[in-house]
UniProtKB/TrEMBL annotation:
<protein>
    <submittedName>
        <fullName>Uncharacterized protein</fullName>
    </submittedName>
</protein>
Length: 156
C-alpha cells in the first residue's frame, strides 16, 4: 500500500444513532475501496465502545462530559478502526480512545494506537461534527432539549 497516493473520497454512511446507558452517540461508517458495511461489525464496535466510555454526564454537568458524542467505524484497508469522541465542558471535544479489529477477527475490538487522532477521512467527519455542535448547541437558543435534537439530526 502506497502511503502518499492522491486523496480519494470514501463513502460515508450515517448509521443509526444509539441512546443507551445515558449516552447519545451519532454513528458513522467510512468504507474504503472494496469494503462493505457490516452491521454485525458496527454493533461489535459500538458494544466495545460503550464498555469503555466513562459514565455519561448531562448537559448541566460543568465538570465532565455531557453524554453526547459520536463514533466513527472505519472499514479501512487493513482493519476496522473506530475512534469515539464526546463533548464536555460545553465546547471541548474529547477523544478518549480508539479501538481496532483486524480483518481476520472483525468483531473482536482491542486497543488502537493511542497517539493517533484519526485519518483524513475521519477528520472530515470530526470537522462536520464541530460545525454541528457550534451551530446547534452553542447557538443562541436556550432550549437545551431542542438543541440536542437539532444536533443529533444535523446533516440528515
Amino acid at each position: 500500500m502506497e502511503h502518499l497516493k492522491p486523496f480519494k473520497e470514501r463513502e460515508v454512511l450515517r448509521i443509526e444513532s444509539v441512546n443507551t446507558q445515558g449516552w447519545q452517540l451519532k454513528r458513522y461508517a467510512i468504507l474504503a475501496d472494496g469494503r462493505a458495511f457490516d452491521a454485525e461489525v458496527a454493533a461489535a464496535a459500538t458494544d466495545e465502545t460503550l464498555k469503555r466510555l466513562p459514565k455519561a454526564g448531562s448537559l448541566t454537568d460543568t465538570a465532565g462530559n455531557h453524554g453526547i458524542g459520536f463514533q466513527i467505524i472505519h472499514f479501512a484497508e487493513t482493519a476496522v478502526v473506530s475512534p469515539v469522541f464526546y463533548w464536555q465542558w460545553g465546547s471541548v471535544l474529547a477523544q478518549p480512545f480508539q479501538i481496532k479489529a483486524h480483518w481476520d477477527e472483525p468483531t473482536v475490538f482491542k486497543d488502537g494506537v493511542d497517539e493517533i487522532v484519526g485519518c483524513i477521512w475521519e477528520m472530515n467527519i470530526v470537522r462536520d461534527e464541530v460545525t454541528a455542535w457550534t451551530e446547534t448547541m452553542l447557538g443562541r437558543s436556550q432550549n437545551r432539549l431542542a438543541q440536542v435534537s437539532d444536533y443529533l439530526n444535523f446533516g440528515l
